[in-house]
Amino acid sequence: MKNNCSNCLGIYSFFGFRLPLIKKLEMIKKSGFDSTTLWWGDEIAFAEASKDDLPAIVRDKGLYLENIHVPYNDINKLFSPVVTERNNILNKYLGWIEDCALYNIPIMVMHVTDGSSLPEPGKYLHESFKKIVQTAEQFEINVAIENTERNDYINFLLNEFDSDYLVFCYDSSHAQLHCCETDILIKWNHRLATVHLSDNDGKKDRHWLPGKGIINWDKVCNNLTNYHGCLTLETFARVNTTAEKFLQQAYIQAEWIKNKIYN
């Protein structure tokens, strides 16, 4: 599936306010954003509507549903030496890929690891992702693996599987905290399918608006000139403000990023 919202501006549907989802979607659209993303797979995500209805609700509000971000509870079991453990968690991911096909969602974003004290990536991870990639290819869904603490896992998988349907999700805040802002972006720019843009103070994953922290956005944006997917903010309000004001400022910062990349 191809992204049909080229260069559009998006923001994660949870942006730091506990409001009804429909209200948040209406506010996102009113603020000028074209697209959004959904967390997928737990009681919080499905509290207001079933997953059967959520994609239609997003689209009814005039927004493009760029991707779902699936949970990463027990993600490390994907490379467990215990077959039953590995298969139990693997089946959840395969099911979420099928959800994407069923609801016409082009991208599934997933983490590969949780934490940093982990073994080197190896055969068990390969076995799990062989099935993930096969399923992604079968249903023509892009599985975007996101950089977190262990970039060696991202490198391992993208080297092992040269598939059009195993792609890269660049998280600017994670890259700043666990790498050198753009190293992983430069390396896998040709596999880039989606982005999570936010800023931080160099200490924690703050999810600040771009330009409000220490990330070198000139450097990041210079390496996004060949990217034409959604420019999606994964940002949460951290100060005393209203949802309306936060979204207004978020849109201004999203446009600032877009202008840096394409002007």
Structure explained in plain terms:
There is one protein chain. With 263 residues, the chain is of the alpha/beta class. α1 (21-30) links the parallel β1 (9-12) and β2 (35-39). The longest helix has 20 residues, at 83-102. 39% of the residues lie in helices and 15% in strands. It has a single domain, classed as Divalent-metal-dependent TIM barrel enzymes (TIM Barrel, Alpha-Beta Barrel). Strands 7-6-5-4-3-2-1-8 form an eight-stranded parallel β-sheet. The two termini are 28 Å apart. The protein has helices spanning 21-30, 54-60, 83-102, 123-139, 151-160, 172-178, 183-187, 217-222, 243-262, and strands spanning 9-12, 35-39, 64-69, 107-111, 142-146, 166-171, 192-196, 231-233. It has nine helices and eight strands.
Helix content: 25-40%
Please give the radius of gyration in angstroms. 18 Å
Strand content: 5-15%
Major sheet description: 8 strands, parallel
Distance, first to last CA: 28 Å
CATH superfamily: Divalent-metal-dependent TIM barrel enzymes
Kindly state the mean pLDDT as a whole number? Answer: 94
SSE order: EHEHEHEHEHEHHEHEH
How many helices does DSSP assign? 9
Q: What is the class in the CATH system?
A: Alpha Beta
Structural class: alpha/beta
CATH topology: TIM Barrel
Spatial sequence of strands, sheet with the most strands: 7-6-5-4-3-2-1-8
User: Per the principal axes of the C-alpha atoms, what is the gross shape?
Assistant: globular
Q: Return the domain count.
A: 1
CATH architecture descriptor name: Alpha-Beta Barrel
Number of strands: 8
What are the low-pLDDT stretches, counting only 5+ consecutive residues below 50?
none
